Amino acid sequence: MAGLAVQAAILALGALLWLASSRYPAEMPAIGPYDFAPTIYLAIAFTGFWYLRGLRRLASADRPATWRQACFLAGLALLYVVTQTGLEYPMQRMFFLHRIQHVVLHHVGPVLIGLSMAGPVILAGGPSWLARLAASRAARGTMRVIQQPVLATVLFSGSFYLWLWPPLHFVAMLSRPLYEFMNWTMAADGILFWAMVLDTRRCPPAHARFGTRAALAVAVMFPQIVLGAVITFATRDLYPFYAFCGRYFPGISAVTDQQIGGIVIWIPPAMMSAVALIVVLNNMRRAEARGGD
User: Fold this and answer.
1) Cα 78 from Cα 247, distance rounded (Å)
2) Tens of pLDDT along 29-87?
3) How buried is residue 173: exposed, middle or buried, by Cβ count under 10 Å (0-12/13-18/19+)?
4) Residue 290: how many CB atoms within 10 A of its CB?
5) How many CB atoms lie within 10 A of CB 151?
6) Dihedral over Cα of 252, 255, 256, 260: its sign
């Protein structure tokens, strides 16, 4: 019964946030949504609830370490902050702030979630249909395909490039459904990729060997560096949407905005790849000590 009450409260709070943000946007506090996205809210809220319930249901010996629990909750909170709070307003009106949003959605948040090894905990606290879905042949087959190392790398880097193609970027920023879909693809692709790379298990059941995962952590760094450099050194406005809607900081020119955004694309993702490489090598060392892959 307590679980039903919490789920009802999540739905009621979502309805309240939708009503407040749609009817009284000017009165919304900074922690409230600028433009409420029900699918994102429900996904984050219910995932967090299932995770916390899973921790209570699991025996203490089966629970992940405290630092992994903190990583999961921090990663989930970051995804919420950049999509469902007042920060989204300036992030839609400055290119470099929008790049920060996507680095959080595609790298920082997913890396934290990947480190958490949260899957078993979420399944333990989730409804029975979620466990059946995860165990289904269709779901397992899909995961084998999209987490095939080469395809996973292409999807991970390709999604970042795709949404920064100037004509598509302009349309996506004007269309709320396409904008939400863009954010969904960035977060989902990031979580799937980093969960595969940072998996502590040997192969199988993991989808790639530790050496391959270490190579992937490094490989995705270079497309980000190239893209960041191209945008950083551009001498014209590649993304006119931000001039069209009005820059949040009007004193920053289009080229300067792009230069800062290019550095955001260039440096933080490279740092996350370096951190991921260290984690993968440590996971490999621990597996070898246990007689693993």
Assistant:
1) 24
2) 888 888 889 999 999 999 999 999 999 999 888 899 999 999 999 999 999 999 999 99
3) buried
4) 9
5) 12
6) positive
